[in-house]
């Protein structure tokens, strides 16, 4: 069904574009994965691009949702007249500046692999042009031309050693074609798309590895899909993406090299590099290191120089204090230490390419046998991630304000590499995301059971009774029963003034939530935690689980343990360290 054309590039166009791009990459993901050969044929470029756009789409949707009014209560400061750029809100819909900034930030924090990192920088480059014009409610063809040019230049500057015949070449060609186009946004978008398609078809003549494999650049093909979605957004007409060009007469032998699971790390490697970075065709560093980094510009300049000396495939994107760092190295520890010296790295992902990997030997590795059953769980902090992993679960980290997207959950299910998977979302707000991930995994032949756990402490209870030797249905029933029998609560600090079930809270107040509802408001963390615990145990219980966040007062665990010991006979207490989990304290009562 054709889209209603967007005459100007405004916030609604951003939203539509992200949605259409996500759909396009979803359809093209497997094909793009199959042609990923430069410089590592590990077949995940399409998947990484999809996950990056999904994160951008989720961020934009969150901005639009923030302008809604729920049950007569304003849920966004923007609705009451304040925007992040200081201008008056337009009344019920975000500004273009709001939308493009959300798109860029979502892509940055969700970028996967080199291709996703490059795409995040392209989107950020466009956002810098659109957001700079904060007075306008929309922009025209000239603005889109400037945005595409700035995006291509910014992406090229982010890559340590650009190579032609990659996504960088395709992005530059799109910008060049757009620069020569006169007319409205739709005319400019179509010119950029046609320029990108022509450049993509020429990539095998620029990179020998592509010509030998008989394919075009995978990252470039992904960008063409994203630009096709832009054309559809701005014209209402679907671009002829089905004919996305491969080099004339070339074969698709690269399809034999699909995404593989790293036998050493147990994770699917995000090692696509069809993105404009140099790397040897045979041999190379043993590790891929990726992390988000909070640091200033000067520190990042020094980091680039240090990482460039350590390895290859270096891409550093971002700005305004937040960066996404990607590099291939032999010394993964040194790459992380460089990030620590530059600022605060987090969401650190290290993938070992492994002996016998195509990256180091060019040889295929036999596929690993699937396990019969696995558990996949979303966890709110590194401490709980370690606990769940020790118990045999495959984990997905969820940080405050950065909930995982459905694509990340699907990837975790694939990474678990099992015929049967039990999925624990551990968050009421993730129920729809987890359901979508489970449905997708089922289409791939994996039997998935979703247990609607609403807190990590319910997940702990479910995992404690998990018995893979049981029949699948019996195991799921036992885990569901254990989770359902666990009441949960959390203690956290209010970020803003709000109406709650317990009255009005101010920013900085300590809140005690039971089963998701605010039950008590105060100023002392320990006192609030004790009140919450007493209310929960008034209904009975046999085991109390306490999960401490990094910012919880040090004596609080001892105090609560003593309280349970003195006031509630035959009730045991177990304490875990949750790390940076958002809440000061999680409480479970079974």
Summarize it:
With 590 residues, the chain is α+β, with helices and mostly antiparallel strands.
How would you characterize the overall build of this protein?
The protein is of the alpha+beta class. The protein is built from 18 helices and 18 strands. The strands form five sheets. Strands 15-14-11-18-16-17 form a six-stranded mixed β-sheet, with helices on both faces. A four-stranded antiparallel β-sheet has the order 4-5-3-6, with helices on both faces. A hairpin with a 2-residue loop joins strand 4 (311-319) and strand 5. Helix 1 (11-34) runs antiparallel to helix 9, helix 2 runs antiparallel to helix 3 and helix 5 packs antiparallel against helix 6. The longest helix is centred in the N-terminal third of the chain and has 24 residues, at 11-34. The radius of gyration is 25 Å and the shape is globular. 53% of the residues are buried. The model is unreliable at 69-91, 242-282 and 354-366 (pLDDT under 50).
Q: Biggest β-sheet, characterized?
A: 6 strands, mixed
State the helix count: 18
Mean pLDDT: 81
Indicate the structural class. Answer: alpha+beta
Radius of gyration: 25 Å
Q: Indicate the low-confidence ranges by residue numbers.
A: 69-91, 242-282, 354-366
Main-sheet strand order equals 15-14-11-18-16-17
Helical percentage: 40-55%
Beta-strand fraction estimate: 15-25%
Amino- and carboxy-terminal Cα gap: 51 Å
Number of strands: 18
Shape: globular
Give the topology, please.
Elements (H helix, E strand, L loop, with lengths): L10 H24 L10 H21 L3 E2 L2 E2 L21 H15 L2 H20 L8 H18 L8 H13 L5 H18 L5 H6 L4 H18 L51 E8 L2 H14 E9 L2 E8 L2 H11 L1 E9 L18 E9 L2 H9 L3 E4 L8 H11 L1 E7 L6 H13 L3 E4 L5 H9 L7 H13 L2 E7 L4 E3 L2 E3 L4 E5 L2 E6 L2 H13 L5 E7 L6 H12 L4 E8 L5 E5 L1
Parallel strand pairs: 7-8, 7-9, 9-10, 16-17
Antiparallel strand pairs: 1-2, 3-5, 3-6, 4-5, 11-14, 11-18, 12-13, 14-15, 16-18
């Amino acid at each position: 069904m054709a889209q209603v054309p967007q005459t100007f590039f405004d916030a609604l166009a951003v939203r539509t574009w992200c949605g259409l791009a996500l759909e396009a990459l979803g359809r093209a993901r497997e094909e793009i994965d199959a042609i990923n050969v430069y410089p590592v044929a590990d077949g995940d470029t399409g998947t990484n691009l999809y996950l990056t756009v999904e994160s951008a789409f989720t961020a934009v949707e969150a901005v639009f949702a923030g302008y809604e009014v729920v049950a007569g209560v304003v849920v966004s400061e923007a609705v009451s007249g304040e925007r992040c750029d200081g201008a008056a809100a337009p009344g019920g819909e975000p500004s273009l500046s709001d939308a493009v900034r959300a798109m860029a930030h979502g892509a940055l924090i969700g970028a996967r692999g080199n291709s996703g990192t490059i795409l995040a920088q392209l989107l950020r480059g466009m956002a810098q042009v659109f957001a700079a014009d904060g007075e306008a409610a929309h922009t025209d063809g000239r603005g889109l031309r400037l945005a595409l040019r700035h995006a291509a230049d910014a992406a090229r500057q982010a890559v340590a050693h650009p190579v032609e015949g990659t996504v960088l070449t395709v992005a530059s060609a799109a910008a060049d074609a757009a620069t020569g186009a006169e007319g409205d946004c739709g005319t400019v978008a179509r010119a950029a798309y046609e320029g990108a398609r022509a450049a993509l078809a020429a990539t095998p003549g620029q990179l020998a590895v592509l010509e030998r494999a008989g394919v075009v650049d995978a990252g470039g093909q992904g960008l063409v899909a994203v630009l096709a979605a832009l054309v559809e957004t701005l014209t209402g007409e679907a671009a002829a993406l089905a004919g996305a060009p491969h080099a004339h007469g070339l074969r698709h032998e690269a399809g034999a090299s699909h995404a593989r699971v790293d036998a050493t790390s147990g994770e699917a490697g995000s090692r696509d590099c069809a993105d404009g970075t140099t790397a040897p065709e045979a041999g190379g560093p043993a590790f891929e290191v990726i992390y988000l980094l909070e640091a200033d510009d000067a520190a990042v300049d020094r980091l680039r120089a240090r990482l460039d000396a350590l390895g290859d495939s270096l891409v550093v994107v971002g700005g305004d204090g937040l960066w996404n760092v990607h590099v291939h190295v032999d010394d993964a520890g040194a790459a992380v230490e460089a990030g620590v010296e530059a600022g605060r790295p987090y969401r650190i992902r290290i993938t070992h390419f492994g002996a016998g990997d195509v990256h180091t030997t060019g040889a295929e590795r036999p596929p690993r046998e699937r396990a019969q059953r696995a558990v996949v769980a979303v966890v709110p902090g590194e401490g709980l991630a370690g606990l769940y992993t020790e118990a045999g679960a495959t984990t997905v980290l969820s940080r405050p304000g950065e909930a995982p997207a459905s694509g990340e959950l699907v990837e975790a299910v694939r990474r678990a590499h099992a015929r049967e998977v039990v999925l624990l979302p551990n968050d009421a707000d993730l129920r729809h995301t987890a359901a979508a991930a489970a449905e997708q995994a089922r289409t791939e032949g994996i039997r998935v059971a979703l247990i609607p756990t609403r807190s990590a402490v319910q997940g702990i209870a479910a995992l404690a009774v998990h018995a893979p030797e049981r029949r699948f249905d019996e195991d799921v029933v036992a885990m569901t029963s254990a989770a359902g029998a666990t009441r949960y609560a959390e203690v956290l600090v209010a970020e803003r003034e709000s109406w709650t079930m317990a009255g009005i809270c101010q920013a900085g107040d300590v809140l005690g939530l039971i089963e998701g509802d605010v039950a008590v408001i105060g100023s002392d963390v320990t006192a609030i935690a004790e009140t919450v615990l007493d209310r929960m145990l008034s209904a009975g219980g046999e085991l109390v689980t306490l999960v401490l966040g990094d910012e919880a007062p040090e004596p609080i665990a001892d105090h609560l343990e003593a309280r349970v010991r003195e006031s509630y006979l035959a009730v045991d207490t177990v304490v875990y360290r949750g790390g940076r989990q958002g809440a000061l304290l999680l409480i479970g009562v079974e």
